[in-house]
Design a protein that fits this description.
By secondary structure, the protein is α/β, with parallel strands linked by helices. The protein has helices at 15-25, 66-78, 91-100, and strands at 7-11, 29-35, 41-47, 50-58, 81-87, 105-112, 115-121, 126-133.
Length: 144
């Protein structure tokens, strides 16, 4: 029986730069950082409040085909690669803190039926969604 999600992958262009961003800016801590031969490096970070979920900071390459790795690199360069969703108890306050650290926001904090949401880019071009959640139901969403 599957018990939980333990690992997610975020593709990055520079593992050192990404690790610094996730740890020094977002408050994650290093999980694993080891070389595994043939130029492959396994780097993970974890949030201190959720250590059972590791985020792998992976450079596009094998086992991806070169065609797919190239597509991922192009998406990162264009800033159009999706990353992960983050929860916060104060979206506007965290937005202010991160903006002062030079984080690029593509969407300022905005009220949504599910909470306050902001979207920003990490150091490699991934967009991350940050939400201060609030209770909601399907009725909170306009029907088309």
């Amino acid at each position: 029986m599957i018990t939980n999600v333990s690992l997610v992958t975020v593709y990055v262009t520079d593992q050192d730069e990404a690790k610094r961003f996730y740890c020094d800016v977002l408050g994650f801590v290093e999980g694993t950082d080891i070389s595994m031969g043939e130029g492959f490096r396994w780097v993970t970070v974890v949030h201190p409040e959720q250590p059972e979920l590791q985020v792998t900071l992976m450079v596009p390459g094998p086992p991806l085909t070169e065609e797919m790795a190239g597509a991922v690199r192009r998406a990162l360069a264009a800033g159009s690669m999706g990353g992960i969703g983050l929860s916060t108890d104060d979206c506007r306050g965290e937005h202010e803190r991160l903006a002062k650290l030079g984080v690029e926001f593509v969407q300022e904090p905005a009220e949504r039926p599910y909470g306050v949401e902001a979207v920003f880019r990490d150091s490699c071009g991934n967009w991350l969604v940050m939400v201060e959640p609030k209770p909601f139901t399907g009725e909170d969403f306009p029907h088309a």
